[in-house]
Structure formats: structure tokens, C-alpha cells
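Morning!

This is the sequence you dropped in the shared folder:
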Amino acid sequence: MSTVRTDYIRSLAGPREEILDEILRDAILREGMPSIQVDDNEARVLQLLTMLLRPRRVIEVGTLFGYSTIHIARGIPEGGKLISLEVDPHAASLAQRYVEKAGVEDRVEIMVGDAAELLSGMERDSVDMIFIDADKKSYPDYLKACFPLLRPGGLLVADDAFAQGDFSAESEAGAPPDREFRAINTYNRAVMRSNRLFSALVGTKNGLMISYKG
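The structure's back. C-alpha cells below.
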């Protein structure tokens, strides 16, 4: 999405909510977290999806400092639960603080650990919605782990579907330079061609791939 269109969306939405602005400033400027969270429009799309779906159980793969977590939680009905998985204990601690600051701690549980291991212990067909926004090289693995957990009629959502961001922070020495791009592309092709999923790519800044499980 071009800068002009991004600015246009911002002009429509008006100033960012004060509590959200405080959280972003604290996380990025004070705590030194990377500014790789979903943008404001993507965050609104996630909240809108949860408001429409009214899920009782949501899984988020990759919490970071909880910006997407807050928006997803805001759309969950009373009694629902968002379980967010984060491998970095410091990021998880910050996310817990910001979730409480935003007033949605009653519907959020943050679990620290390897996402693949945590997902493997969850019940099949028990989740209404899953949002994937973690290490890009593992997107195909997350798809394999998440698909069985999602109930029929549930939504699977993946960020960075355009595969156009800077993923250098995820690269290790000797890793192929296009590794993350290829992994995201593999994920995209798999969900688009699956006979169990109906998928569409939503043109947010980084792209959201949204899949419905039939």
C-alpha cells in the first residue's frame, strides 16, 4: 500500500486512541521494542473480524508487545478467551502490562514458550480463530499445527502475506536471503489451493491472508 493511501486511512480514522498511543510510545521508545507490530488499520481489521465472528476461543501465534492482542481481545465477547503465544519472556511481560493497561486482561492469557510445542498440546477443532504473526520461516509449520485446531467455520488469519517487509532480524548466518519470502509464499499457495479453506488476501499495508475453514 502506498504512503498516500496509508495517510488517507489515517486521516479517516483520526488520531490514534490515547491509551494505544501511550502503549506504542512506551514499547518502542522506552523499552526499545522493534516497531514491527501490526499497523493501526490491520489492528482495526483484526478487531472487526472478532466482532463479526464473536469467537469464544482465539489463538495468537506471536504476541510481541501485545498491540494486536489488545485489538483482538476487544472484539471477543464476554466469556471468550484469547491465548497468545510468545517465545520471548521479556516481550510477553511487556504485553501483559499493556493488556492490563488497555483493560482486556480478563480475556487474555499469554503463554511463554515455543509456539509449535504449545500448539501440539491443544485440542483439535477447539479454536474459533487463529492469528499468525510470528517468525516467517515457520509459517508452513504453523499452518500444519494450526489447521487441526481450528473448528469448521473458523478463521485462520496470517500477517505479512505480501512478503515484502524487512525480515533481516529473523535471519541467521548462512540462511538463504529469500528464506522468509519463500516460506510465506508456500503458506499463501497452500491456503489458497486447499479444498478445506476458502481464502482471500486483504490489501492492508503488509497484507492479511484470511482463510475460512469449511
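Headline: The mean pLDDT is 91.

More detail when I'm at my desk.
O.
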